[in-house]
């Protein structure tokens, strides 16, 4: 494959050698407030495995993958085990042929056995790759969405590993799609800078919240201009009906309601349960069953289509091969990419191309730690350069953990505002990283002292 | 769910408290001989994450999950992180309602995010669960196949978590299947003890072997009574043709040839390449493409059916939900369960039930470290209690690493002989475990000293 320089700022192979990569276990004690609680994840401590890439120059890359607390130490171990594939490499060379590097990372001949391209090793890949994109943005002095928007189509396509997806999209097709969508780019970028990208809120409907809190939050977000609201369901049908009715009462019937079961049901149960909730006119049912069950989702989609309910999934879809099948099979009417689950920006780009090809709108999953910060860049790229439309598209927004980031997401009038600081918006405030590093950070030590959480056993058998 | 005692040897809750669980990183330097080399895994060091469960009585459980070397430390970390869900539990209670315990292990509300039920955490689950079955066998003084054969159907079905698979098989159906197949059990068990279960060999066709070695090994295994031979393909078409022709020349056309691509191709490429190899009349093409691509395998199966070539896959199929879809879709004509990839005996049993229901023969994957030792138990259970037939069924056999086990697999006249020692045949010889523990075992220290392998960096960034 031909190599070419990406920018004029430096010649290939000069001056951006990666000298170190550090992985840290950062956990926020969100379980104390039932924030993020759903049918399957009853007590999450929103956390991340946080990567900093140091170069020989005065520029760093920051990246992360989101986790729910326990197990973050396993992802950190995986990042450490993979670090030797990154340290010593020239980042400028990586960026020129990023897809080839991505394949090296994900296809290491011994390590791939314990994936491949799924679970812990793929989350570790995401954290590393996200840090590399942050670094690239900083080197180019652009936020990642703008880096992507300005990138030569050939360079962008070369960032993608098309292995296993050429039956849906080839590099040549991807290139043609970008070139075809080039018309109108400037107008869309200008409009995006003016208005932003529409968001919906999940803040109103965590399972652990009381009725009063739900109503209060609905009113608050409605007043802020939100028009789409998501509610967690699946633990108790009568309770779900009560909550959906309550939300509809506050938001009215002209607004959009989505419901989210977080994988609690089997296939037939999904269909039966959603028939009971159809009266509340949800736009979609999210994650009705196993995130691996393509054929199950296709069956559910078929059954719910006459009721006007679509199926949304993707936040736990483990790689592009699963996404490919969800898109091929009609098992997904809304494609919910996540910025940390699959192997970083490169693999997510491949999903955008497949979704465009097969005509499925992408509505990213966000929330957690840093997901909003990252995913806004991707969706803005898609709008300007690929899909060219916001129709049927909206990005999840959860107003949590943003205070720990140096350049947090800005949502105004229910729209994500374009990030302007160079990079991928992934840098944690040093004070937050220090305080919440598990288990030695000052906040954790304080909570252990007070008996709010037990001190963990050695590395970390503690539960 | 009703609880009942499994055996008469003890009352529930008495006397089998698990007091500790230890995980070790054991690696054998097989890359030195190109043993196990294939199109995707060019230099494997066959390894395992090895678990020992200690109880308050004088009985231990030994279990493992197979790995290829690098990354084993990540699986060991995952086992350590999960150990608190096991330590302190009463094993006798676990066994009485094993499916419920299995769900606890795989659905831990924070940890499941980094799976769920796939990759590193699921390999760790397999190692732990396999050790529990070994313990159960020892407590009952039976090899695991016989433990399963003699088990009350209700207890066996209660060991399975049916979440996400009830659209194919329910607990009630599974129970009925066992009861229906009960007739003839004694005769089949007696026959199995006399003759054993048929094996095929993969020993003849690793990609790293020379032509002379391949021919010599074909002749050797032919003389031992083997009638089915598997060859690795996929790196170079002309080389594949030469190797297949060579093997056919030695084994003749009345014997069975299988070919294995280890995921090297895309969907269309799989079809094109196999059309070129059809002249050698392979029974199956194994792992033509991504192990996650159900629809891709279905397409390949359709295209190759007229050529008389089936598709086999499963060794990297990450859980029962993927198996369900492969079986539902016609993407798998031979179901290759693996004893360590999905979550241990419990989940594999669910695959046997689905395969039986949907009429697909199970031909287990084996080789590696301990896979032959474990999988023989499962296939023998299936023959005696469920499928009741050996038709179209055969178990892989690779004659490597058996010398490290206290009770290695015995294959005579190309048939696995029934294991007679209580447990799951999973105990490593203490001397082997000591010598090959990575990186501090005596053999590894010796190889580092001689410069045969580099000393690893701290935990283990070394590559």
UniProtKB/TrEMBL annotation, chains A, B:
Short name of one Pfam family: MR_MLE_N
Keyword check for Lyase: yes
Record-listed E.C. numbers: 4.2.1.68
Keyword Magnesium set for record: yes
Domain Mandelate racemase/muconate lactonizing enzyme C-terminal: 211-307
UniProt KW keywords: Lyase, Magnesium, Metal-binding
One of the record's GO molecular function terms: magnesium ion binding
Catalysis performed (reactions): L-fuconate = 2-dehydro-3-deoxy-L-fuconate + H2O
Swiss-Prot/TrEMBL GO biological process terms: carbohydrate catabolic process
InterPro entries registered for this protein in UniProt: Enolase-like_C_sf, Enolase-like_N, Enolase_C-like, L-fuconate_dehydratase, Mandelate_racemase_C, Mandelate_racemase_N_dom, RHMD-like
Cofactor field: Mg(2+)
Similarity comment: Belongs to the mandelate racemase/muconate lactonizing enzyme family. ENOSF1 subfamily.
The protein, known as: Mitochondrial enolase superfamily member 1
Originating organism: Gryllus longicercus
């Amino acid at each position: 494959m031909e190599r070419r320089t990406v920018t004029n700022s430096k010649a290939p192979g000069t001056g951006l050698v990666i000298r170190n990569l550090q992985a840290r276990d950062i956990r926020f004690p969100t379980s104390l407030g039932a924030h993020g609680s759903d049918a399957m994840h009853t007590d999450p401590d929103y956390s991340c495995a946080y990567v900093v890439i140091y170069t020989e120059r005065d520029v760093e890359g920051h990246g992360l993958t989101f986790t729910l607390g326990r197990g973050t130490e396993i992802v950190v171990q995986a990042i450490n085990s993979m670090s030797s594939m990154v340290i010593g490499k020239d980042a400028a060379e990586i960026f020129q042929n990023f897809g080839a590097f991505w394949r090296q990372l994900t296809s290491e001949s011994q390590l791939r056995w314990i994936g491949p391209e799924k679970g812990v090793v793929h989350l570790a890949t995401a954290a590393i790759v996200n840090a590399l994109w942050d670094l690239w943005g900083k080197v180019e002095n652009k936020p990642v969405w703008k880096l992507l928007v300005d990138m030569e189509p050939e360079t962008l396509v070369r960032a993608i590993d098309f292995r296993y997806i050429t039956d849906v999209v080839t590099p040549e097709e991807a290139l043609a799609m970008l070139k075809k969508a080039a018309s109108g780019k400037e107008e869309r970028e200008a409009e995006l800078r003016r208005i932003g990208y529409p968001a919906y809120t999940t803040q109103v409907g965590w399972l652990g919240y009381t009725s009063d809190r739900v109503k209060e939050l609905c009113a608050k977000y409605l007043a802020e201009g939100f028009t789409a609201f998501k509610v967690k369901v699946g633990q108790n049908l009568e309770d779900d009906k009560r909550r959906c009715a309550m939300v509809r009462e506050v938001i009215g019937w002209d607004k959009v309601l989505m419901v989210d079961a977080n994988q609690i049901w089997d296939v037939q149960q999904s269909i039966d349960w959603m028939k009971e909730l159809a009266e509340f006119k949800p736009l979609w049912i999210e994650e009705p069953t196993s995130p691996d069950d393509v054929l199950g989702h296709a069956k559910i989609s078929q059954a719910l289509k006459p009721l006007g309910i679509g199926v949304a999934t993707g936040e736990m879809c483990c790689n592009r091969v699963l996404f490919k099948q969800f898109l091929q099979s009609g098992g997904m009417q809304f494609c919910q990419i996540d910025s940390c689950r699959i192997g970083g920006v490169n693999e997510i780009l491949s999903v955008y191309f497949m979704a465009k090809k097969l005509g499925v709108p992408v509505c990213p999953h966000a929330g957690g730690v840093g997901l909003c910060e990252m995913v806004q860049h991707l969706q803005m790229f898609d709008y300007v350069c690929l899909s060219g439309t916001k129709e049927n598209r909206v990005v999840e927004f959860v107003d949590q953990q943003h205070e720990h980031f140096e350049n947090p997401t800005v949502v105004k009038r229910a729209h994500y505002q374009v990030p302007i600081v160079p990079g991928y918006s992934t840098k944690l405030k040093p004070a937050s990283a220090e305080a919440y590093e598990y288990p030695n950070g000052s906040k954790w030590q304080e909570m252990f002292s007070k008996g709010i959480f037990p001190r963990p056993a050695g590395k970390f058998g503690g539960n």
